[in-house]
Amino acid sequence: MTFKIGHEHYTTKGDFKKGHIPWNKDISVWLEKECSYCGKSFKIRKCHITRGRGKYCSKECMIKSITIHPKTPADSIAVKFRLLDEYKLWRMDCLRRDWFKCQECSSKDKLEVHHVKLFRTLVEEFLSTYNQFSPIEDRETLARLAVTYKPFWDIDNGVTYCRRCHRVAEHRLRNKEKS
After folding, report:
1. Are 74 and 124 contacting, i.e. CB atoms less than 8 angstroms apart?
2. Is 170 exposed, middle or buried (0-12, 13-18, 19+ CB in 10 A)?
3. Of 23, 51, 58, 106, whose CB has the highest number of CB atoms within 10 Å?
4. Among 179, 67, 176, 69, which Cα is nearest to 118's?
5. Which residues lie closer than 8 Å to 73 by C-beta, 6 or more apart?
């Protein structure tokens, strides 16, 4: 119990008196853990582990483990294709066609365009068509060729969903792929 300044029992030393033994004497609040990213040993408080922390020794290791993952050449070139102006135009065409409404719930908030045929599949087909080019060395050439590749810009391959419905649709697709 704490008292305000001026109260007869007020003390700056807290409630502990000389010779008092704390309840947690000889009980360590620190645990020794190993970093999931770099393998370095570090100490963390027990209470932090129950809050979902304690996997990484530093913020840098956490960021590296989240952002650095092995990408296939198809993944890295797909990112390049999504940055093209044609991709943005295709997205806007799909949104206009669907009257800027989610096709599941008719919401107009946080709209996204879902690929009926997976974009990754389209990129893999594109790369197999133009297999004479390396996805790593000839990225600029492949980006120029992608502008003329019709399946990328077919608006029938896009459906407008709100963020929530898009997640549901993606979840359905993943479950269908697993079975």
Report:
1. yes
2. middle
3. 58
4. 176
5. 127, 134, 135, 136
Q: Decide if 157 contacts 115 (C-beta within 8 A).
A: yes
pLDDT of residue 3: 65
39-97 pLDDT, tens digit each? 899 988 887 776 667 888 888 887 777 665 555 656 678 888 888 999 999 999 999 99
C-beta of residue 10 within 8 angstroms of C-beta of residue 4: yes
- Quick check: 143 and 81 in contact, CB under 8 A? yes
Residue 12 is classified by DSSP as: T
Per-residue pLDDT, 139: 84
Question: What is the DSSP secondary-structure string of 104-169?
Answer: TT---SSEEEEESS-HHHHHHHHHHHTTTS-TTT-HHHHHHHHHH-GGGG-GGGEEEEEHHHHHHH
Half-sphere exposure of 122 (CA within 13 A, CB side): 18
pLDDT band at 29 (very low <50, low <70, confident <90, very high): confident
pLDDT tens profile 134-178:
877 888 899 999 999 999 999 999 999 999 999 999 888 888 877
Q: What are phi and psi of 72, to 5 degrees?
A: -80, 160
